[in-house]
Amino acid sequence: MNELKEVRRVFQGLQTLYKTYFSKVDPALLNDLLTREQEKREEPTLYLVQMWTNDSSKKDFIKTYIVEKTGMMPSIHDNGRHFVTNHILNLELLKDFSDLENVTRIKGYFTGAIYGVGA
Question: I need a labelling partner for 19 at 20 to 30 A (CA). Which of 8, 10, 28, 61 fits?
């Protein structure tokens, strides 16, 4: 049973790293993204990414930032506090989004490989 304790200990350490460096990001998104990254997929992966902010006065800044980083226009909900975009995602981009001051939470879901667009 020592191996089970080891798995639990390492998993707890991973959770601590997530909270330290990606405190605004849903751990399920991080797990999925890192798993796909580790598989060394040839094609970029698309995710539906949702970001929530605490201040709708920064709506235009967040929208412009998303467009500049992804090339995609987000849909904006909840009076300018909830942004939804379908785009290619990697760990670096997720960290950029997470580091934005007004962002309070990020969730996302894998939607397919890039070749699935328009199919």
Answer: 61
Q: Whole-model pTM?
A: 0.87
* Pairwise CA distance, residues 83 & 67, whole Å: 11
Per-residue pLDDT at 39: 86
For every residue of 61-94, DSSP letters joined together read HHHHHHHHHHS-PPEEEGGGTEEEEEEE--HHHH
Task: State how far the alpha carbon of 79 is from the alpha carbons of 54, 63, 73, 74, 76, in Å.
Answer: 11, 13, 16, 14, 8
Burial of 100 (0-12, 13-18, 19+ CB in 10 A): middle
Q: Is residue 24 within 8 Å of 98, Cβ to Cβ?
A: yes
Q: What are the structural domains, with CATH classification, of the chain?
A: 24-114 (3.30.70)
Query: Phi and psi for 73 in degrees, rounded to 5?
Result: -85, 125
